[in-house]
Structures are given as structure tokens and as C-alpha cells.
Amino acid sequence: MLTPFEVIFANIAQGIALLDSDLRVLVINNRLSQLLQIPELTMGVDAKVIADHLPACNQTRLWLTHLVTEQKTLQQEIEVGEVLLSLTSTPVGEGCWLIQCKDISAQAVTRKELSEQTNLFDTALANMPHGLCMFDADKNLMLCNTAYSRLYSLPEQLTRPGTPLQQILDYRVTAGNAPVDRETYFDVVVEAALKRSVASQNISLVDGRVIKISHNPMENGGYVAAHEDVTDAVRADEQIKYMAGHDPLTGLPNRTLLREKIDREVAVSGKTSSLLCLDLDRFKEVNDSLGHAVGDLLLKAVADRLTDCLRDGDSIARLGGDEFVIFQTDVQSRDQASSLAQRIIDVVDKAFIIDGKSVRIGVSIGIAMAPDDGDMGDSLLRHADTALYKAKANGRGTFCFFETVMDVDRQARRDLETVLQQALETNQFELYYQPQVDTISEQVVGFEALLRWHHPERGLVSPAEFIPLAEETGMIVPIGEWVLRQACKDAASWSADIGVAVNLSPLQFKSQTLAHTVVSALSDAGLQASRLELEITESVLLTDNDTALATLHHIRSLGVRIAMDDFGTGYSSLSYLRLFPFDKIKIDQSFIRELGNSKDCAAIVKAVVDLGASLGITTTAEGVETSDQLNRVREQGCSEIQGYFFGKPLPISSVHELLKRHSPDAA
Predict the structure, then answer these.
(1) Alpha-carbon distance 428 to 425, whole Å?
(2) Cα→Cα distances 538→95, 138, 585, 586, Å
(3) Sequence-distant contacts of 204-209: CB under 8 A, at least 24 apart
């Protein structure tokens, strides 16, 4: 019967053998024979036999040599077949050796997997774009990646586990990349610990960079932190915020930033303040004649001069275009606001030297006082703008304080703008026609189309009231197109020898679609181009006359006739006759009215008629209202006559009847 020792020895998981001083087997179990795959391994076998049966490798050769020459434990790993074994040889005294062998294949697989995971983790850590670090509860470094050390230019010895955070921060002071505020730096650590979740904060460094640090607390009191350089993103965000509140051309605050300051100052201080709305006079002419590049330089120069006029605490903003606003805080009286306004007018009135050119402009100013005229930015801006409108109406180059009555007038104007738009949409406009008559035969040769507005509540609105408003708001362009199309359509129903004249606004020339509109109107109505006459005033040619002349030449090449209206009232009428071959000049009625009373007027009319005859240009006398005026313009040789003597403007329904009365058959 086996002893307990023999039972244990025979069934133990390890293979065991005891070698004597001659390296022969004294004791061995079957497990060793199984593991080494040596069937004949029994007592008395020499160690060399065991070595010969082991796989041929340095490890097995080393084993036998070690047993012969050394007296210390040897730990080896050898592969037998597909099994990995751990072979431990331990000296046990008097030259004997204890041999232990066990199967570690499973542990090797686990160890390999762990090694691969560790390698993956190390690779991921090393290639992270952001710095990563881990500190224990005592703020000693546990690990960090390459990006972290590179972010702060840390030497290798400061990236080793156990390095105190304080030591790293001290080094960063000398390296010039420490946090600007160390307390703020640690605040985020405390915040993360208190709420037990990630806490992030942007930390400014003394070298100008901004680092976003996200702390994630660990259960043991330590934390993991990610460090990301967000300098570019922060700067971009700051730039976006700056641009949102500033004018890109002059760098001045814009309406949004100014309104915030006004609201803040008025609400907090409660002191009297003034708001000045500025609009540059004649800027548009400079911009059109010298170009937008010069216009931009002029705006910058104006901004500099205006800024020099301000006290500490005052603010200036550009609202866009040629509009500026100045906010004056702690104003003692209206006189102080008046003094600033006059100083600005005087400063802007002085010539600017822009791109080598001397440029003269002016400025009109509207002033609103807080809190009397409003206690919020929007209301003050609105009232100052209303006062500015009044200042411009008073002749420009001046300033005007807001008064309540102005708001009523401005509201009435806004209401008129609204209904003007509605008038076009709901067909409230109508064309009246005033006959143009041949001076000799007194036969109707054409009609001038004149616009009338039938308002459903106000009745007939005077053109003198709504045409200037239509010009200011730009509504004259769509209204003018409607007039042109309707006039062509109406004229198409008249006899082929009767023409129609349509007035053009300077704004219609700036739309750059005028020629196309003319072609379209003629085509849609089926009207011959020679029966259409377009009347322009000198103001059309005053600004950007090269473009206007090119457009006129294009239209005239279609066969359309071009007439200069109100001839003699402008400064350059004669020079424009040289620049463009007009088909007709219409002598202003102011000269016709004084024919019997003024020799000068008679001489002027005679000179114009003679000039027209020499150039082959038809001359029309406007405003003929009496038989005496008729006889006098006949004497002067005018080609055509227009005025109340031959007929007032008539609705289209009355035009056909008039044509019958003045036709050759009726005569």
C-alpha cells in the first residue's frame, strides 16, 4: 500500500525529480516524464539523457551546463511540442538538484494577450493628439504620454512615475509656459472632485497659449487629465466676437455694441446723455465719381477725425454706409451736445486729402437726449435719426435736436412709404396724358405720360408729395417700369403718327436694366421704337455720366427718341448737348411764363431755338397757357408746344376724343 507521500508525489500537477551529485535521478514522478515527453525517464537515468531528449535550443544546453558548473537556482521556459513549460532547477545541498516542471501554456497565452493590450495602450497613448496624464491622490505623476511632455517641453526625468505635480509646475515657470494664475489652474481639479465628474476649463499660459484641461476624478482620489492646445480656436472665437461687434472697415464698434453700451450707461448712471446721428453730405457723389476704394479711405479718415473730437468716456460707432453715431455720457446741458455737433461739422467740412486728391464733404447731425428723448438704445437711435432727417431737410451741413412733433411727421412718412408699396401692388396708379402740339398746324403729335395716384382714402395724392419719396426709397424704379410699360401699351392703340413721352428718373439708370426694360416694354406692347420718347433731366448726367451716356446711346440705337427736359435750368445743359445727340430739348416753362415781361427770357428762348435748329434738334415750349404765349413762341420758332392752352393732362379715356378733334379729317 502506498504511503500518503507517495500518493501526493505521484498525483501532483508538477513534474518533479531529484538528482544526486552525479546528476542521476534519485526520485521522479510520472508527471515529469509526461511533461518532457520522455517515456523512459526513470530512476538512475543520467541528466545528459534528459538533456538529449529536450528540444535543441540554447536554453536546454544552458540547463546541463548550469547543473555542472553552478550552484544556484535556474528558471527556464522551454517549448516541448506545443506546450510551454517552466523548468526550475534548484540546488538542495551536497551537489543534489531539485528539478520542478509545470505547464504554463495557459498563463503564457494570458501574458501574451496582456502584453498585446499593453502595447496597444502604449501606442494609443503615444499617438494621442492631446496631452494625457494621470496623478494619484498625492498629486504625484502616475503616467503621461509624449504629447503631454511635448506640450510643456518637459525633460525625461519629469515624466517618470512618482514625479510631484508641484515639481512639474516649478519647472514650467522656468520654461516660460506656466499657468498665468495657478489658483485657477487648481480650481478645475477641485470642481471635478466635488461634482465627481469631468470638469473643463481654459487655462491661459504666460507664453500666450490657451490650454483646455479636462479633469476626470478617480475613486482613489487621483485624477486623469487631458490637455488640449485650443489657442487657435480661442483666437478665432475672439475674432468672431470682435467682428460681430465692430465695423470691419473702420474698426469702430457697430450698432449692436453701441446699443448695449447705451442701454448699460443710461440704466446704471441715470445721468443726462446725448446721442448724435451723423450722415455725411455729398459722400455718395465722391463714391460714384472717384470709386469705392477712395470712398473707403475717406470713411476711415472721417472716423479718425470724429474720434479725435471725443472726450474720455464718449463712444463712436459706424452703423454702415456713411452713417456714424456718437454717444456722449454725463452731458451737463444741450449746449454741450450743440458744441460737439458744431465742432464735428467744422472738422468734417475741412478738405480731406485722399489718394492724392482733395475731397470736400460735409455732415448733417441729429441729436437725441437721454433720458428725455428715450431711456433705451433703440428709442434714442430712432429719435436721433428722426432729428437727422430734419437736419438734412433744413439744408444739410447743420444739426437739429429731436422734438416730439418730428416723430409724428416721420411716422406719417413711413406710413406713406407703406401705402406707396401697396399702391403699386393694388393698381392704384393711373397715367394721365398731356398733348404735345405742332406749333404751325396745331395738330397733336404726341402725349407726355404723367403719373397720378388715386388713394382709396386720401383721394388724389399730389405727385409733388409722393415722387420725392419714391426717389428716396428706390420705389421709383419699379414704379417707373410700370409707367413705361403702361404708356407703351396705351400708345399702341393710337394712330401710328402719335408718339408718347415718358420721364425717366436718375435712379432708373443706376438699375443697369433700363435698356432691357425699354426693349421688353416695346415688344410686349407692339409699339414701334420711333414712337417712344424718353425725357431726362440734367441730373441724370451729373453723376457717373459715362455710364448714363452709354445707356442713352444704347437706347437711342434702338430707334427710341431722347429729349432733355427742363432745358436751361441746370448748369451744364449746353455742354451735354455737345456730349449727346438729343432729339429734342424742352424749354422750361419758367422762361415761357416771362416771355412778355422779360427781354432776357425772350433772348434765351430765341437762342435755344436757333441752337436747336442748327443742330437739327426739335424744340418744345413747356407751360404755354395763353394765346399771347402761343404767339410769342411761334415768333421765336419753337417746333412744338405743350401746356394748358391746348389741354390739361387727361385720363386715357379722354385721349381718343381729343385725337378725333385734332385729326386732319376733323379739320
Answers:
(1) 8
(2) 128, 88, 11, 12
(3) 204/179, 204/180, 205/177, 205/178, 205/179, 205/180, 206/176, 206/177, 206/178, 206/179, 206/180, 207/176, 207/177, 209/177
Q: What separation in angstroms does the CA of 269 have from each of 255, 264, 371, 379?
A: 21, 8, 11, 18
Q: For residue 501, what pLDDT is reported?
A: 95
Of 374, 371, 403, the residue nearest 387 (C-alpha): 403
73-92, pLDDT tens digit by residue?
A: 888 888 887 888 888 889 98
Q: Distance (Å, rounded) from C-alpha 654 to C-alpha 113?
A: 104
Distance of CA 330 to the CA centre of its chain: 34
pLDDT digits (tens, 9 = 90+) for 454-493: 888 888 887 888 888 888 778 888 999 999 999 999 999 9
State how far Cα 287 lies from the chain centre: 23
- Run of H or E including 254: none
Using alpha carbons only, what angle is made at residue 30 by residues 29 and 34, rounded to the nearest 5 degrees? Answer: 130
Rounded distance between C-alpha atoms, residue 347 and residue 363, angstroms? 10
Grid coordinates 447731425 are at which residue?
A: 365
Please tell me whether residue 402 adopts helix, strand or coil conformation.
Answer: coil
Residue 447 grid cell: 402725349
pTM score: 0.49
The answer to whether 399 touches 364, Cβ cutoff 8 Å, is: yes
The answer to whether residues 572 and 538 touch, using CB atoms and an 8 Å cutoff, is: yes
